Amino acid sequence: MRIPMTEYLDIDLDTEMWRCRRCDADIAPARDDYKTGTLVYDRDPTEIHRPLIDADRYEFTFAPDPSWCRILEFSCPGCGTMLETEYLPPGHPPTHDLEIDVDALRAQWSGWQGPVPLTLGRDVQVTDHLHTH
Amino acid sequence: MTTVYETSAADQARVDRFLAEATMFLGPDPEIMRDHKSAPRTPAEEELMAREWDANELDRVRKRIVSGLDEAYEMMAQTGAAPGAKWGDLTSAVYSAGGDLVHISTGGVLAFASVLHYPVRFINKYWIGDPSVGVHDGDAFIHNDARYGNIHNTDQSIILPVFYEDELIAWVATVVHEGENGAKEPGGMPSSSESAFDDGLRMSPFKIIEKGELRRDLLTFLQNSVREPALQYQDLKVKYYAAQRIKERVVGLIDEVGRDAFLVSLRRSLEDVEAEARRRISAIPDGTYRVNYFGDGTLRENVMLKYPCAITIRGDDMTIDWRGSAPQFLNRAFNANLGSAKCGMNQGILGFLWPDLPRGISIMNSIEVLTHPGSCVDPSDEAPVGQSLQSIFKTFGIVQALFPKMTFSCPEKFGSIIAPWFNQINTFLFGGVNQHGQFLGNVCADLNGMGGGARAYRDGEPAMAPFFAAMADLGEQEIIEEDVPFLQLISKRIKRDNQAFGKYRGGMGYEIAVAAKGTPMWGFATVSSGSKFPAVPGLFGGYGCPTIPLAKIKGTNVFETLRERPELFEFDYERLMNERPFPDAHYSTHHLGMGFELAAEGEMYMICQGSGGGYGDVLERDPAAVVADVEAGYLSVGQAENVYRVVFDSETLAVDEEATAAARADEREARRRRSRPYAEFVADWVTDEPPANVPYYGSWGPDNERIWATVWGAKGPVRLAAPMAELPPLLLPDPREIEVLTLRAELEAARAQLQGGGE
């Protein structure tokens, strides 16, 4: 049974692995930080949030200060999907954002009959959200 | 040999009474202020609850109470004088006699639900039995001091006891964001506050109306303490009459349904909400969910402030851990009292996680909050809190950011899977003499134009609403300009590329340019952060919002330009700053913490509202949605190509689907090439301490017991790391002093160079 945990990751209760919901690649053991199985890139934030006013003339330009802020981009080693981003000061350890009690998760779903639903909001349920590219 | 004396109960009571009467100062009571939960049943409630009750009848009572609160809300919104009242920055509330807040109005600011019980508990504990104060039918108490329980000191409340047949049976209250409160700067949210005494009026709960008679002596004192004495009186009456109306509705309801049914309805509401909250927590997977937010300023200077959050779910209990947050600063205004910080958290719960639940304090009964006393989210009573919204908005942001991660797998949802809502105060505060000769000090409703976060199934809505009040209004600019002597020369124009990118993009923010006109004296202030480090991140691979600067065009009168050479003016922040069309003007950009600054006629100040966070991988965004944003002027061609990798004809906007698919496949491959495996990456990336160039405050990494801080002493700044309790008091130097010292050093160096050259 695969439980969707984020837009791009589920936990496979049979293999106890974090898996990519786009390409089925195993990412990391479900009891660990999924980020340990990702590829990471240290993105200069000004490449994404470009200066909108002249950076040669002004100190503040709509672009983050790259000496204060970096964007860590975590992507799937299987398909390159961007699983998560994290805005951090340079050198700050990435955050272990999802530390799931796998035994409790298994117990929670143990009596579930039928397909695992994916509900994105109140009255917003999708049936086939997987493998869109 | 030690002699042990037995103290009789009577002796102990005598000692307690003596100590109570001899207390020199009834400051904020930690026993009250650290308790965010509703009280257990009283014996009388036990007895009532043991009887048989018709659940439908109790629900009808509940709805009648809420409709009375909604009526009071409408009264205040329609008759209130403060701009905050007009946009719905207010609420009305009903409490149990013990001071448990049970219901607030449907509209208005939900966060009040978690903070208004504190002053009522204070009145119950200290004033009700005090012969010099007492609580009687017809009394009304006034209050604003957040240290006694409030969102922030610019909100003023009126609190009324409700008696039924001589029994104190409930309390009711009305609250409005009044703005002006006599603080160091006009508008009630002073970013330059350097002590608690700069925060303006600090009203602990006291009686302003006694047995139906207004205390004009106290009112006069209050009016002398603020810049808008007429507003102080007018809105006191507005809040009082609205609270009176609630009281009448409550008494009428009890006449109809009986005392017992009323009391049981209140108690059942508290207990049902707690039970339902616990049921919903149980459905969240057990585990710990973490996020780290970073503020980039105190509103006086850029420093980095960490706001970590770890939410742990175990069964039906939730623990929210903010340990590791930045320490309090004793001469900066961004600290938030613990009660205020918790109301940011509760705003996230009531507005986003469980927006359908009745709004009372028992929703928090299943939640424990962990902090370090002495941190900016749990400061001492001596710390200034004039701009506590800085920290309150972060405590909202950090919990809201985690809710979608906690609930993604839950089959039953009550809100949406949604990226972070924008959560900064991007607006202008203002003060001075208006065109009618009155002194004003307040805030523009543009605060309410925050961009919504992207949802898992659609884009965020631009300029939607403040995260704290879904029904708040932006106001009609032309009507506002009848009262204030400044114009919005660029008004609510969506700022191109001010977008949090993603599969679904965040709701975008708009640009605003203001300039004063026809006034002998006027000034502006801004009270926001996020000019160096983005205020909100994205979700599940989406990006956060861009940073937002404050821009000034000074030394020119734009109204003269508009009259004499109108072709020079552009209704575009970006072009005005890049093309510099006014030849004699001085152009500059700044962080968004501008203390109150006098503005000459026609000098322009420009800011933008921010964007809600983006959701999902940018390469999954529908190319048609990308070019639709280009067509609407929301997105530049350059960023459509750079971020979204959409290939299209920039003239016709026709998308080349095949080339786009190829470009995106190339980008996915490029990601894999340029990225490194996690272990290899962190081995190089992680440092033992914050960057040397960043004045950093808070924990570094997961060790939340070691707090980093830069301490300013006689020999200048020194960085240290220690447990929170061992940090020395933190006081920052005046930024202008730093600037003078820097310029003096440059001058001395230049002189030395000159002298050296002459030898």
Could you describe the 3D structure shown?
The complex is a heterodimer of chains A (133) and B (759). Chain A has one domain (2-126). Helices cover 9% and strands 32% of the residues of chain A. Chain A contains two helices and ten strands. Chain A is mainly beta and 133 residues long. The model of chain A has no long low-confidence stretch (mean pLDDT 94). By secondary structure, chain B is α+β, with helices and mostly antiparallel strands. Chain B folds into four domains: 9-37 and 55-185 and 216-280, no CATH class; 425-615, no CATH class; 617-675, no CATH class; 696-758, no CATH class. Chain B contains 19 helices and 24 strands. In chain B, the strands form four sheets. Chain B has a seven-stranded antiparallel β-sheet with strand order 2-1-5-4-3-6-7, sandwiched between helices. In chain B, a hairpin with a 2-residue loop joins strand 23 (703-713) and strand 24. In chain B, helix 4 (55-79) runs antiparallel to helix 8 and helix 10 packs parallel to helix 11. The chains are: A mainly beta (133), B alpha+beta (759). The interface between A and B is large, with 75 and 97 residues.
List descriptors.
heterodimer; A: 133 residues; mainly beta; four-stranded antiparallel β-sheet; three-stranded antiparallel β-sheet; 9% helix; elongated; B: 759 residues; alpha+beta; 4 domains; seven-stranded antiparallel β-sheet; seven-stranded mixed β-sheet; Putative acetone carboxylase gamma subunit (chain A); Aceto_COase_bsu/gsu (chain A); catalytic activity (chain B); Hydantoinase_B (chain B)
